[in-house]
Amino acid sequence: MTIKTGFDPDKFVQEAGDAIIAANSEGLIIFWNKAAERIFGYMTSEVLSHSLDLIIPERLRKRHWEGYQQVMQSGQTHYGSEVLRVPAVHKDGRHLSIAFTVTLLFSDDAHIHAIAAIIRDETARWDEERALRQRAAGIEAKNS
After folding, report:
1. Exposure on the CB side of residue 62, measured as CA atoms within 13 A
2. What is the pLDDT of residue 1?
3. Are 32 and 47 spatial neighbours (Cβ–Cβ below 8 Å)?
4. Which of 91, 62, 80 is nearest to 116 (CA)?
5. How confident is the model at residue 125 (pLDDT cuts 50, 70, 90)?
6. What is the layout of strands, in order, in the sheet containing 95-106?
7. pLDDT confidence band for 121 (50 / 70 / 90)
8. Per residue, what are the HEC states of the chain?
């Protein structure tokens, strides 16, 4: 039995407040929602079929791709239920702090077709925490 709800999953994914991005087995972007446009500054038309390197800081790319390939080969990731917090890069070059989880998308023949991530921009929170840490360190230095 199908219940008619008026719910449109495609619209939900496009309109979600968090970025939803998917990349194929080579790391090329195959899906980019409106929140991804807002967070990273790239329009969907600018990123489709381009590498995730657009949003990965250069210093972290080697480590990212090693992990990406390991997931592609093993078919397993522990970031599906764990939130990963990492730096990212906006189109204009500014640094972002993002938090995300991933899900593996399998093809009918049980091979990984893509990895999808749900991403939240936590830059403001990160900046606030850094300022608090610096302030606490200053207070400790004065009291030493």
Report:
1. 1
2. 58
3. yes
4. 80
5. confident
6. 29-32, 19-24, 112-121, 95-106, 84-89
7. very high
8. CCCCCCCCHHHHHHHCCCEEEEEECCCEEEEECHHHHHHHCCCHHHHCCCEHHHCCCHHHHHHHHHHHHHHHHHCCCCCCCCCEEEEEECCCCCEEEEEEEEEEEECCCCCEEEEEEEEEECHHHHHHHHHHHHHHHHHHHHHC
Written as one letter, the residue type at 32 is W
Domains along the sequence of the chain with CATH:
16-143 (3.30.450.20)
pTM to 2 decimal places: 0.83
- Give which of 14, 20, 90, 19 is closest to 56, Cα–Cα: 90
If you average pLDDT over residues 17-28, what whole number do you get?
97
- Rounded to an integer, what distance in angstroms lies between the CA atom of residue 39 and that of residue 117? 14
- Residue found by looking up tokens 């446009």 in the block: 37
Q: How far apart are CA 100 and CA 103, in angstroms?
A: 10
SS3 97: strand
